[in-house]
Design a protein that fits this description.
heterodimer, A: Rossmann fold, 6-stranded mixed sheet, 4-stranded antiparallel sheet, about 30% helix, globular, B: mainly alpha, ABC transporter involved in vitamin B12 uptake, BtuC, Arc Repressor Mutant, subunit A, two-stranded antiparallel sheet, about 5% strand, Metal_Ion_Import_ABC (chain A), ABC_transporter-like_ATP-bd (chain A), P-loop_NTPase (chain A)
């Protein structure tokens, strides 16, 4: 029985100022995988996610989420941007940031109420941040900020999660806490797509991987395609990494 | 107070509120300078609008001028997008050019009308009550009051309707876009409101005060709160306070009203900058001093914990063991005693049970950085507040 395709990318080309950063990407992500997107700096990993989510406009190609365009499937998708992409001095609390995850289901103009607050508190509990709900976000450590972002995605109760470097600048404890939550999501049948930098941990954390460097190099199960050959193609000549089975 | 005086204060207050609302979001979006650009570059829009309508208070003129404001923003973004210059440079390129086009247009064509550059820069709040709105023969008040009042009502309506959207797109544009709240729509909406407010306030208070009223109250409020709603309310209060106190300062000094209001805004910011409870300069200095003392206290407690030998814990030798000045040692000893963390026994210092607990908890926190267990210690000690 073949699995359903959660995300399908066809002939996607994206350019900044007419310089292509992603070239003719074809990609099929099956439902229920925990997938890493790996590639060198400037490979277009974040760009790929942002284009799938309609934040960037591609110059060619199309994206579908469960066979429909993204605009029709927003409710199925949650997004965790890079931690550095927002101003943490913004006057707001941890709880309020998590509540933002509910805005999508509310739509324009409608205000969040008790139901949304309850969902946000549950998500905070899940990531172990409930004691910090009233804390101003600049008063949180880097790891705690990342957990808040994760909680904000959890509160969306989506089917597909996109995360842009969730392990950046967090300590080992937080990294383990986050990966455990991601694995739980996969167990619940969700699809999780993560931009990832640490090649050493790919086989341990993920079951699916996409190699990207402006063009797609390879995509598939980690056990089949995470090898020196693909790493070398992606990162340049003679890239070696030890793979622990 | 004469009715003209009340009207002037009312106009100034409404302008202050109308400016504080978009101003708060401009400050949070790090776009304060855009308001400066808009306030200057709408001049050609005002001049062209004036040629067409022959009326400085016509709604058409306000729309034309607001359009120039939007054009400014678009031009700045376009130049910036080329990647050849940075945003601040792009702003510096665009608005002086548009402003000077307006200046030339006034000089060439409008010598005989009451539209001069001084009035544009500093406004003529004192004259605002003279320009009345007459509806079927009845005087219903100064025109400026009606204009800024209408703009304010629209602004407040938009704020209530789109507060959530403004918040999310200001904090995290990427998430806003992925959830379907187009950050571009919000951005240009905010720019339009800023432009319209600027034009509406322009005639009354001039280009320079408009900028001050947008940025200063918001920046002051930012120092006082970690809550967006409160920041908006504080900014509005500061704006109104400066508007009214500035008016009376001008009255007392017999000086420019807009100049006095701006001065009050500056003084208010200075006061908050110095005395704000958390972010203020004095509070920060006090906190740093306290933290220094607390680190010393911890060092001292740790010394006691680590040394069982009496020689190391004798009051007369503590100074040399820890290598502190007398004053510092006394401060630390007093603090430890006050908190019942140490006890004396024939000049030998030792930790009390509370002192023991505190030391191990504190060390634990410093090593693990897990601050869930020390929440209750935060009230007494700055050290644990991160």
């Amino acid at each position: 029985m073949s699995k359903q395709i959660a995300v399908k990318v066809d002939d996607l080309t994206v350019a900044y100022n007419y310089k292509p950063v992603l070239w003719d990407i074809d990609l099929e992500i099956p439902e229920g995988v925990l997938m890493a997107i790996v590639g060198p700096n400037g490979a277009g990993k974040s760009t790929l996610i942002k284009s799938i989510l309609g934040i960037l406009k591609p110059i060619a190609g199309s994206v579908s989420i469960y066979d429909k365009p993204y605009e029709k499937q927003r409710q199925l998708v949650a997004y965790v941007p890079q931690k550095g992409s927002v101003d943490w001095d913004f006057p707001t609390t941890a709880l309020d940031v998590v509540m933002m995850g509910t805005y999508g289901s509310l739509g324009w103009i409608k205000r969040p109420g008790q139901k949304q607050k309850k969902a946000a508190l549950e998500a905070l509990e899940k990531v172990g941040m409930l004691p910090f709900k009233g804390r101003q976000i600049s008063q949180l450590s880097g790891g705690q900020q990342q957990r808040i972002f994760l909680a904000r995605a959890l509160v969306q109760n989506a089917s597909i999660y996109f995360m842009d470097e969730p392990f950046q600048g967090v300590d080992a404890t937080t990294e383990i806490a986050i990966i455990n939550i991601l694995k739980e999501l996969r167990k619940a049948g969700k699809t999780v797509i993560v931009v990832h930098h640490d090649l050493q941990t790919v086989p341990e954390y993920f079951d699916w991987v996409t190699f990207l460097n402006v063009k797609k190099i390879a995509t598939g199960p980690v056990k089949d395609i995470f090898n020196d050959d693909n790493l070398t193609k992606t990162y340049g000549i003679n890239y070696k990494v030890s793979i622990q089975e | 107070m004469s009715s003209a005086q009340i009207e002037i204060q009312l106009i100034a207050s409404l302008v202050a509120i109308a400016c504080a609302i978009p101003g708060t979001f401009l400050v949070l979006r790090k776009m304060a300078m855009i308001s400066d650009a808009i306030s200057h570059s709408i001049l050609p829009g005002i001049v062209v609008g004036f040629f067409i309508t022959q009326d400085l208070n016509s709604p058409l003129l306000i729309l034309l001028a607001a359009l120039t404001g939007i054009i400014t923003v678009v031009l700045v973004e376009y130049i910036q997008k080329t990647g050849l210059v940075k945003e601040d440079t792009a702003i510096g390129l665009v608005f002086p050019i548009l402003f000077s086009i307006g200046v030339i247009m006034i000089a060439k064509n409008a010598n005989d009308v009451h539209l001069d550059v001084d009035a544009v820069l500093l406004g003529e709040l004192a004259f605002a009550p003279f320009d009345r709105l007459i509806v079927s023969g009845i005087d219903v008040g100064p025109k400026s009051l009606w204009i800024i009042g209408s703009i304010l009502i629209i602004t407040i309506g938009l704020l209530f309707a789109f507060f959530k959207e403004l918040k999310i797109s200001t904090f995290d544009a990427g998430l806003a876009a992925s959830l379907g709240f187009s950050p571009a729509v919000i951005h240009y909406g905010l720019m339009s409101v800023s432009s319209i407010t600027t034009v509406g306030a322009f005639d009354a208070v001039g280009a320079i005060l408009v900028v001050a009223l947008m940025i200063s109250p918001a920046a002051t409020a930012y120092l006082l709160t970690n809550n967006l709603k409160r920041m908006l309310i504080y900014a509005i209060c500061f704006g109104v306070f400066s508007a009214i106190s500035g008016y009376w300062l001008a009255h007392w000094l017999d000086a420019s009203i807009s100049g006095s209001i701006t001065t009050m805004l500056g003084l208010l910011f200075l006061a908050v900058y110095l005395f704000a409870p958390n972010k203020g300069v004095i509070a920060v200095m006090y906190r740093e001093k306290q933290q220094r003392t607390e680190v010393s206290l911890l060092t001292f407690l740790l010394h006691l914990k680590n040394h069982t030998e009496e020689r190391e814990r004798h009051v007369n030798h503590l100074n040399e063991h820890i290598n502190w000045q007398k004053v510092r040692s006394k401060t630390v000893l007093d603090l430890a005693l006050k908190n019942n963390m140490i006890k004396f026994d024939k000049n030998i210092v030792s930790l009390t049970e509370k002192g023991e607990d505190f030391t191990s908890q504190a060390i634990d926190y410093i090593i693990t950085n897990e601050d869930a267990q020390i929440e209750d210690m935060k009230d007494d000690f700055f050290l644990f507040r991160g």
